[in-house]
Write a structure and sequence with these properties.
heterotrimer, A mainly alpha, B alpha+beta, C mainly alpha, A: 74% helix
Chain lengths: 324, 541, 312
């Protein structure tokens, strides 16, 4: 088991490196580079060439990548050519926002999926079942940004600023900058609409999974035995069926993180949140190579890391599964 | 913003624009109530600040910060009068070859060091230094040298007279921003770019506290600001909200006090949502161009000195047919701006100093356009005319205008295909002499005709059409050197007419600029993009 | 060996429950399809979904006939018109009839949705089959590449691809978006098929075929492929739904198909800011996306229920 864990951990490294390499190369295939964006109205070809040389952008792509990698292993994530800001610093500032958004979105998804899945399993093929599934289905059929816009209309514009439209307030004790708003209530207000917009779409699959898993478990012998022993139905359901149904659900939740990271880009853009999502897309559009690398690195790490965690948890939770 | 009175065109649209401005304009500067000190002004930007090295960073978002954190020698009012900033007084020699500036005593940088003539000299010298790579370098072409006469007096010697020296120092780009010699030598350009407050000690009313890109920029009142009683605000917080609907929601909910540069397309929606908003605008100072490429590199090498005419638009007749007569500017303004802009032909937009209305030179005339195309070999029986219009995504209105132009050109038998690309790709193509036919963009705000030199002369990288016509350079040079107003305006007229006659610059209309403030924001003087000064602003709540 | 299928697909609805590879059916009973069809007919959700999809197909096919105006014709005299008899869904900023745009948008959305998925299919399935069947180095190599694509946060890849391609209008633009979405989906099909192939590779009758000298491609085609068809069909249907959402989201970010091509995603994004005064302009494209995606999701779900009885 331990060897397997270590092997998987080591396997993460080449995968993450491959992703960053591919992103590195792809970014340099896009027309334009950070020097164009940086010089702006001062742009002349001679100056541009000189600046490119100063920043090492005229070296072969693979060499540039190795230089980036070399700095990385020393803990230096590079500095943005465009803004002069150290990438690691900005990533650390943005990370808590996106992390909280993703966690709470999953919470929203579960909050919808668990009741819907249970109802669906217990009242299989009745109207309650269809309604529950349909509600979940609706969420996945609307693009996140549209849900976000509708929420904005209702809560920010419509109800006269019930919920703030944009920005961020940090949880007490987590302020990463010199100046920031800090308040638990404020934080919840700022994250509610984005989390709803992002999480609603995830509920459909989880509902279906939970429902199906619970159905499967309900039919298995040991639940029947428990019933035969005379235990009431509710405890039976909640203790045995639900716990076991959560296994594949957790698996899939982990797999959904990749999509959540992508969805976060859209939701953060709409709600002007200072998270990794806006960090990433702004960097891509502005051709900020270093910033994009930082974004690719952290998201690849999070994604691959969470997949590993899920695989391990899966093994841990379901003793029937063993890895070759 | 108008500098001198010229005969108003009796254009119906101009009258409409005026009435719109009158009803929507902010209340006058002088306010009956007593200003209250204190409070935080929350500003919303539609785009990110690139970086905070004032001398080199691109973008208005940076410039407006520079105007409040930094100070210059002089400022310009909406009426075109010059008022002193760091300079208490100044003198211009009669021959225009010498400028003498006397500074206020007791001006301090935010780190406590003195602002003296040496600091000003340092700043001007570094702007002129090619190693700095400042976008303002070309503005100082006429400057010979600077000399410190005494700690508070600076003399600027000119190579030749420059009629717009003061305008340039006041409001070309950021205007002159005085850098602290000690801080600039102590800290690196990266320190300044990333916004380290110690590296950016300006001499303006607000001190930089923190900049976190994509999150916020915070400025605080500088207590030792040399103008007494200013600034009134305690703090300014700038956030970037890119999506217009979110920006409007933030404004309506009162989360934002001031929107710097609001999208013209959504002004009506904002007005409907927030009827008490103070929407500020004026005569357009930014041109909306449908530029056409005139020459291409002969040997295919970008920026090659050897030029060949562009296969389509190298022919003046085609440029005239498409750009001059083939476009219905009124229709464009109606659809793209809901009439809230001025259809305009001349290179300098209506709000630019010494601007002239040349709309009569290019009336919408399908017949004439078709005739010219036929002459050039296109049209029925001739070659098919197909080309591409580039529209970048910085503003959605570019694509709207491109679409309208496409439909209009279809009426005269030309097929235009629209290519949408992001701003950096657009810059990459145009600045590197890449292949393009026509683009729709609004480039830069023009205080004077002179400030458009580097966008339209024959050599500059930013002069995208690459017309290669030295006569244009000649006009610009003479225009800049002529100190006599009447003679200069005559040269200006010649230049503008020459640009229209040769279609080296194809204006469609002015590009309107809007700023929006909550009703409790008082004391702001609207001066388009040129001067965004928050030192007189106070909050009535 | 049981290994969960790792990597995120865009909308995960198409993953089987416990990640177990699809098993082959019993050798000589009623074909799974006939069984499946019967179950399908009884499923309410599948029928509703199928109905919606059918209507959409008709609309897309006969768009030219159904739409009162051309979706790209502008008319400056009737911009931002409210819904009326002449323009039941109003007109947009350039005077284009919204109803016609929504109708023609069906065609574009279905084209993007279907072709992106088919493209992913035609690339992913052969790779998956080859990887599963031949195993060894080939398998490892193919799966490495697939893992790499899967390991990308999906939107990151799609966004970068679109910025490289540069969003355009017209057929080329549609193709670019299709390509970007397709690339991202290829690994899903590859993995799916590979799993199926692995499970039946060792079956006796396959061994027998080999012993008899039947050529590999024929084996793959005749025996392996039909067993993968069920999950492929389900994944494809659900994949279409996802692709349409992705196209709309790319448009929101400014990276989808560009005007004047009548794209629901673009219309939604462009008119969302006018939602207070001209609500119908963004509402109807949004509704169209919703109904279409819902239809495919319902149908796909129903298909899955019908074709894999273990899930009921």
């Amino acid at each position: 088991m331990r060897t397997y864990f270590i092997k998987r951990l080591l396997e993460m490294v080449p995968t993450i490196l491959m992703i960053t390499l591919v992103v590195f190369i792809m970014m340099r295939s896009i027309p334009g580079d950070p020097v164009v964006a940086m010089l702006g109205d001062a742009y002349t070809q001679e100056d541009a060439e000189r600046v490119r040389h100063d920043y090492g952008l005229d070296k072969p792509v693979v060499v540039q990548y190795l230089i980036w990698l070399g700095k990385l292993v020393q803990g230096d994530w590079g500095t943005s050519i465009l803004s002069g800001r150290p990438v690691l610093q900005d990533v650390m500032i943005r990370l808590p926002v996106t992390f909280e958004l993703i966690v709470l979105s999953m919470g929203v998804a579960l909050a919808i999926a668990i009741p819907a899945g249970i109802i669906g399993a217990l009242r299989q093929n009745t109207w309650a079942d269809y309604t529950a599934t349909s509600v979940a289905m609706i969420g996945v059929s609307i693009p996140e940004f549209f849900i976000g816009v509708l929420l904005l209309l209702i809560f920010s514009i419509g109800l006269g600023g019930w919920l703030p439209s944009s920005g961020w307030v940090y949880l007490p004790g987590t302020c990463p900058t010199m100046v920031c708003g800090v308040s638990l209530w404020g934080n919840l207000q700022h994250v509610l609409m984005p989390a709803l917009a992002l999480g609603v779409g995830r509920a459909a699959l989880l509902t279906r999974l939970l429902r199906a898993s619970m159905l499967e478990v309900i039919r298995t012998e040991y639940v029947t035995t428990a019933r035969a022993k005379g235990l009431a139905e509710k405890p039976v359901v909640f203790k045995h069926a639900l716990k076991n149904a959560l296994i594949p659900t957790i698996t899939v939740m982990g797999l959904q993180v990749g999509f959540l990271i992508g969805g976060a880009i859209v939701v953060e853009t709409l709600f002007a949140m200072p998270g990794l999502g806006t960090f990433g897309i702004d960097a891509i559009i502005a051709r900020d190579y270093q910033q994009v690398q930082g974004f690719a690195l952290i998201t690849a790490f999070a994604f691959v890391g969470i997949n590993l965690l899920v695989d391990l948890t899966y093994t841990f939770l379901d003793p029937r599964i063993r890895y070759a | 913003m108008q500098l001198r009175r010229f005969s108003w065109p009796t254009h119906l649209v101009a009258a409409l624009v005026l009435s719109l401005v009158a009803t929507a304009a902010a209340p006058p500067v002088a306010d009956a109530q007593a200003p209250k000190k204190g409070g935080t002004l929350r500003v919303s930007y539609g785009n990110d600040i690139a970086n905070l090295d004032f001398h080199t960073a691109p973008g208005y978002e940076m410039m407006w910060v520079a105007m409040n954190v930094g100070c210059g020698l002089i400022d310009i009012t909406p009426d075109g009068k010059f008022v002193g900033d760091a300079a208490e007084s100044w003198q211009v020699a009669p021959d225009g070859l010498m400028y003498t500036f006397k500074l206020h005593k007791n001006i301090l940088f935010h780190d406590g060091t003195k602002v003296d003539a040496a600091a000003v000299k340092f700043s001007i010298d570094r702007l002129m230094d090619p190693a700095t790579k400042s976008g303002m370098r070309s503005f100082f072409d006429s400057v010979h040298s600077t000399e410190v006469l005494d700690p508070l007096t600076l003399q600027v010697r000119m190579k030749q007279p420059y009629a717009f020296m003061l305008h340039m120092l006041a409001a070309y780009r950021t205007g002159l921003v005085i850098y602290s010699p000690t801080a600039t030598q102590k800290y690196t350009v990266e320190d300044r770019k990333m916004g380290k407050p110690e590296a950016i000690p300006g001499c303006g009313p607000f001190r930089l506290v923190e900049w976190v890109k994509g999150t916020h920029l915070v400025m605080e009142r500088f207590d030792k600001y040399f103008k007494p009683g200013r600034p009134l605000l305690d703090r300014i917080v700038i956030r970037t909200i890119k999506d217009p609907i979110t920006e409007m929601a933030a404004f309506k909910a009162g989360e934002v006090d001031f929107i710097a540069s609001f999208s013209p397309e959504h002004v009506d929606t904002l007005k409907a949502q927030s009827p008490n908003a103070s929407i500020m605008t004026g005569k357009e100072t930014t041109p909306m161009v449908a530029a056409m490429k005139v020459t291409v590199p002969k040997d295919g090498k970008p920026m090659s000195k050897e030029r060949a005419p562009h296969p389509i638009f190298g022919d003046l007749r085609v440029r005239k047919a498409i750009g001059c007569y083939g476009i219905d500017r009124n229709e464009i303004v109606k659809i793209a701006f809901k009439g809230q802009a001025t259809p305009w032909v001349a290179m300098a937009p209506p709000g630019t100093l010494e601007s002239i209305d040349l709309n009569a030179k290019c009336p919408y005339d399908q017949a004439k356009a078709k005739a010219l195309l036929k002459e050039a070999g296109y049209g029925p029986g001739g070659k098919p005319l197909t080309f591409e219009i580039m529209a970048d995504t910085e503003k959605s209105v570019f694509n709207v205008i491109a679409t309208v132009i496409k439909d209009q050109l279809a009426r005269i038998g030309a097929t235009a295909n629209i290519r949408v690309l992001d701003k950096v790709s657009w810059m990459n193509t145009t600045l590197n002499d890449g292949p393009w036919d026509m683009y729709v963009e609004d480039l830069l705000s023009l205080l004077t005709i002179d400030s458009n030199g580097y966008l339209s002369n024959s050599t500059s990288t930013w002069s995208h059409p690459r017309h290669n016509d030295k006569k244009v350079d000649d006009f610009y040079a003479r225009y800049a050197r002529e100190m006599d107003a009447t003679k200069r305006q005559a040269i200006g007229r010649e230049l503008l007419e020459y640009m229209v006659d040769n279609v080296y610059w194809n204006n469609v209309s002015g590009s309107p600029f809007f700023m929006v403030a909550q009703p409790w924001v008082k004391g702001y003087t609207y001066n388009a993009e040129f001067e965004v000064d928050w030192e007189t602003v106070w909050l009535d709540k | 060996m049981v290994k969960p299928i790792s990597g995120g697909s865009l909308r995960e609805a198409e993953l089987p429950v416990s990640g177990v590879a699809w098993r082959a059916p019993a050798a000589r009973s009623e074909s799974p399809f006939v069984q499946g069809l019967r179950r399908l007919r009884r499923s309410m959700t599948a029928l509703i979904g199928a109905g919606i999809v059918a209507v959409l197909l008709v609309v897309a096919l006969f768009a030219d006939v159904l739409a009162p105006f051309s979706p790209t014709d502008t008319d400056q005299t009737t911009t931002f018109a409210a819904p009326s008899w002449e323009h039941p869904l109003g007109t947009d900023q350039l005077g284009r009839d919204m109803l016609s745009r929504v109708i023609h948008g069906t065609r574009i959305s279905l084209i993007v949705g279907v072709s992106s998925v088919l493209l992913a299919l035609f690339v992913g399935v052969p790779f998956g089959m080859i990887a599963g069947y031949y195993g060894g180095q080939v398998d490892r190599l193919v799966m490495r590449v697939m893992d790499l694509i899967l390991a990308f946060p999906i939107y990151l890849l799609a966004i970068i691809l679109m910025v490289i391609f540069t969003p355009t209008a017209g057929l080329l633009g549609t193709m670019k978006v299709t390509g970007a979405i397709a690339i991202v989906r290829i690994p899903i099909y590859a993995r799916l098929v590979r799993g199926s192939v692995l499970s039946i590779k060792e079956k006796e009758y396959v061994e027998a075929c080999r012993a008899l000298g039947v050529r590999d491609p024929w084996i793959l085609f005749r025996h392996v492929l039909p067993n993968c068809l069920a999950p492929i069909i389900v994944t494809t249907t659900l994949g279409i739904a996802t692709s349409i959402i992705v196209e709309a989201t790319l448009s929101f970010l400014g990276l989808g198909t560009q005007p004047p091509t009548p794209s629901w995603g673009w219309d939604l994004k462009a008119n969302v800011a006018f939602i207070q005064a001209n609500m119908w302009l963004s509402l109807f494209p949004g509704l169209a996306i919703f109904v279409t995606v819902l239809g495919f999701n319902l149908f796909g779900d129903g298909l899955r229920d019908a074709l894999d009885p273990r899930l009921k």
